[in-house]
Each structure stands twice: as structure tokens, then as C-alpha cells.
Amino acid sequence: MVDFVQAVAEGKRSFKRLTMEEADLRELDLAELTLKGCTFTKCDFHRAQLFRWHCEDCSFIECRFNDADMSESTFLRCTFYALDRPSSFVASDLRHSKWQECDVRLCSFEKAQLFKGEWQQVNATGANFFKADFRRAFTMQQCIMRLADLRDANLRKCDLSKTDFEQADLRESQLQEANLTTCNFAGANLVHTQVQGADLRGANIASFNVQQMDMQGVKIYETQGKSLLQAIGIELFEANPTE
């Protein structure tokens, strides 16, 4: 750890295949680093300055990023999870960060700032986003959010297309005017979820309770509408032009 910290202090900004375990990196200024193929296990980055990191093919196993400044960082093909050993981002600053093909299963993003974040093909199965700040400006495309905790999430007008929300907890979340095309909501908890004006074309909305949800202005295909009506017991018949 001393060599790594010293190297950063001396101005080195790029590291390859670095391995660190149980390192105490709390409150250090480690900003604007490029990391490729590095592995960090049980490292503590609490309150560290990590903004503008660029990480490729790195592993962060059971690391603590709570209250860290990770804004404007980019993570490509990075893993933040091993078997029952997720990392934690509680109250971290992730504004304007970009994540692509990353694994953040079971990680906690509780109270994290995700404003203007961009996630592409991220596996966030079972992750906790309770009280995370999306501030209606977040992009999440082709991601896996199964069993994720998204209670009270403000994702209004966000692009969440092609994301899998199977069995996710979306209670009281705000999805008004969001792009939800081809999303999967099978088994999701949608109590008091707001979807007015959302684009739901091609989405799996079989679990939507249209008798309790306000779906004013939503966009769906005709076949989806028929399925929703049939689910509440309405029988549909073709009009007979001869009558």
C-alpha cells in the first residue's frame, strides 16, 4: 500500500495489474487515476477523492466506497462483487459517472448521488438503491435490476429501456414519462408506483394492476392493452360490421 500511495503522491497516474488487500485508503486524494486489470480486496476508500477515475477490467471485492467522491469516473467491465462479498457505495458521489458491462450485484448504493449517471449492460441484481438521488436525470439501458431495492426512486423522464426489473421493489417510485420500452416488470412490487406518460411499448407489464395504478398517458401496444383488460376480467369482441 505504501508504494501505491507514494507513487500517487509522486505524480504517477496509471497502474496496471496492481493487487491490494485490506488497504486503508480512507480520505486519501487518489483522483484522476487510470487503472487497468487491477484487483482490490477488502480495501477501504471511505471519504477518498476518487473523481475522474478510468477503470478497465478491474475487480473490487468487498471494498468500501462510502462517502467517496467518484464523480465523472468511468468503469468498463469492472466487478464489484464476489460470492456474497459485495462492495458498498453508501452516500458516495457518483454524479456524471459512466458504467458499462459492470457487475454490482448486491452492492449498496443507499443515499448515493447518481445524477447524470450512465449505466449500460450493468448487472445490479439485488442491489440497494434506497433513497439514492437520481434527480430525474439518469440513463440505465439493458441492465439487470432483478430483486433490486428501488423504493421511492425518482426516475422520472429517465431512459431505462430494455432493463430487467423482475421482482424488483419499485414501491412509490416515480417513473412518469420515462422510457420503459421492452423492460421486464414480472413480479415487481409496484404499489403506489407512478407511471403516467411513460413509454411502455413492448414491456412485460402483466403484473400491472390497472385498477389501482394511474396509467394516464402511457404508451403501449394494442396487444398489451388487450392483455391488461383481460387480466381484470373484461371480455373483448371483434366488431361485426354487418350488425
Automatic annotation (TrEMBL):
Signal peptide: none annotated. InterPro entries: 5peptide_repeat, Pentapeptide-BTB/POZ_domain. Pfam families: Pentapeptide. PANTHER family: BTB_POZ DOMAIN-CONTAINING PROTEIN KCTD9 (PTHR14136). This is Pentapeptide repeat-containing protein. It comes from Phototrophicus methaneseepsis.
